Amino acid sequence: MKPGQLTVGTDNPAYPPWYAGGTKSSFWKINDPSTGKGFESATVYAVAKQLGFSPSAVHWTYVPFNRAFAPGKKSFDFDINQISYTPQRAKVVTFSKSYYDVNQAIVVLKGTPIASVHSVAGLRSFKLGAQIGTTSYAFITSTIKPTKQPSVYPQNAGAVQALKNKQIDGLVVDLPTAFFVSSAQVPHSEVLGQFNSGGGAGYFGMVFAKGNPLATCVDQSLTKLRANGTLQQIQQKWLAKATGAPTLK
Amino acid sequence: MASEGDRRADLEVDEPRRSRILGALGSGGGGARAVAIALLSTIVFVVVVVVVVGNSPGWPAVHKGFFSWTYYKSAFPETARAFRLNVEIFLIAECLILPFALLIAVLRSLPGPVFFPFRALAIMYADFFRGVPTILMIAWLGFGVPGLQISGVPTSTTFWAVVALVLIYSAYVSEVYRAGIDSVHPSQEAAARSLGLTRGQTLRKVILPQAVRRVIPPLLNDFIGLQKDTALVGILGAVEAFQQTEIDTAATFNFTAYLVAATLFVAITIPLARFTDWLIARDRRRRQAQGLFA
Question: B246 to chain A: nearest residue by CA?
């Protein structure tokens, strides 16, 4: 965007485990993305280093989900906000390679009927929820195929409240978010299980304006970071808790 | 009573007013020239808009992003299905709003010191619920009340969405009713009471019939507002038309689905708006023909 500066967009609030380290700014809620802590923040600074930007040259800007792909001049070099690659989306924007291969998972309240389900088919009769902009909703409708209309929430806060209120039986989110929801956001909840997306079919990519040549450079950086183990280290540091959920089949 | 001559004069005065859209076209004299000018200025206006928008650097992207026929077709069936929830919500809500708001308006119109608490309550109600943004009310009730976890209290999002809309819109509609009640001349009440009707009978048989008939157009106006505000229910997770378009938009990164929702809303609000216009025009003709307000 600005010469000599890498402008990175993400949504506000910046939720764990993607962002961490808290915030001292009045603008960024929950976490300030410029701390370098949390999976996405750490990944961005690692990529920036590969590209030759010092940490102080990385500038964060607030990009609500819809702004990431709205037509017109972008206010960021790239946006990083747990956005899943899909071929349809890639017609409108350019995605980087995967910086995280993602599985969907389901969070439920302990002791409720859904908590004793151990198969995808068993989930069919429950009221499920997801958040707009995630691929979780598509996952619910195309793979779980529930008999009740799933609920869809514009914000994480609404989805979490609905689960607390028992307005939905289960919340489908990506696996790391599922662990954050169950450990920090909804008391007495648990990650019931994750879904096998089938050989890394789902992944998060950084979003660029269609055809932005910077994407190629970022892809090279990601390939390098994957090869030298940096990406794996960052993942272990920030997403270590996000493993070990049983796989629902 | 108005004489025959008065009536004709009224109609003649009314004539140019009726065709406000066509401006001076109907006002006699130079009709063909006026039509030509109107036609020309319309063409120039449309051409300027098309050229300015069509030549803007971002138009191809905006065209593809907001007005794509392919996406329109693919988003339509799902959005239309989701729109049924909007229709259900505003129909149920409207049926509750009309009587509830009337009750509040009547309470607020009760005379005398005895009824002060009712008047005060009605005023506080209207002040509060007109002041609170609808989306906040929906979020408070839809997430807040089920959050209390009281057994027997519904957790259904549709239920609480309807309650929130009824509360908010009743405040507006009660003010419309009140304006109607206030517009009935006090002599009507005095006449009714002197004929031996009780206060209740006067209200029911003399005041309200006149008051309600006069405010039908603004009532329909609020009804249209209600229809559009059903799109706010999505915040609770209900998949109504707008929420469905958000899902489509998020899945495809293409905003054309918004246009589908707009089409559906407009398709029901425009006929209602024309109907309201027609009612207003009919009412004005009748009143002027009767010479009541000449």
Answer: A132
Residue B247, pLDDT above cutoff 50: yes
What is the average pLDDT across A10-16? 91
Q: Count contacts between A and B (CB, < 8 Å).
A: 87
Chain A residues within 8 A of B143 when measuring between CB atoms: 158, 161-162, 165
CATH of the domain at A33: 3.40.190.10
Looking at the partner chain, which of B139, B157, B254 has a beta carbon nearest the beta carbon of A92?
A: B254
Shared domain for A45 and A78, answered yes or no, is yes
Instruction: Tell me whether residues B249 and A152 touch, CB distance under 8 A.
Output: no
Residue B155 to residue A86, Cβ atoms within 8 A: no
The reply to whether A31 and A85 lie within a common domain is yes
Please indicate, yes or no, whether residues A108 and A96 belong to a single structural domain of this protein. Answer: no
Q: Is A205 on the interface with B (CB under 8 A)?
A: no
Range of the domain at A42: 6-100+201-248
Mean predicted confidence (pLDDT) in A36-62? 94
Q: What residues does A190 pair with on adjacent strands? A: A108
Give B165-224 pLDDT, tens digit per residue.
999 999 999 999 999 999 999 999 999 999 999 988 999 999 999 999 889 889 998 999
Closest CA to A132 of A228, A68, A36, A50: A68
Q: Which of A153, A158, A167 sits opposite B155 (nearest CB)?
A: A167
> What whole-number distance in Å separates Cα of residue B59 and Cα of residue B240?
30
**Cross-chain Cβ contact B250/A167 below 8 Å:** no
Question: pLDDT tens across B33-77, in order?
Answer: 899 999 999 999 999 999 999 888 888 888 888 999 999 999 999
In a shared domain, residues A63 and A144: no
Question: Per the structure, how many domains does chain A have?
Answer: 2
**Cross-chain residue pair B253–A88, CB shorter than 8 Å:** yes
ipTM of model over 0.85: no
pTM of the model: 0.79
Contact B251 A151 (CB under 8 A): no
A75, A9 contact by CB (below 8 A)? yes
Same domain, yes or no, for A113 and A85?
Answer: no
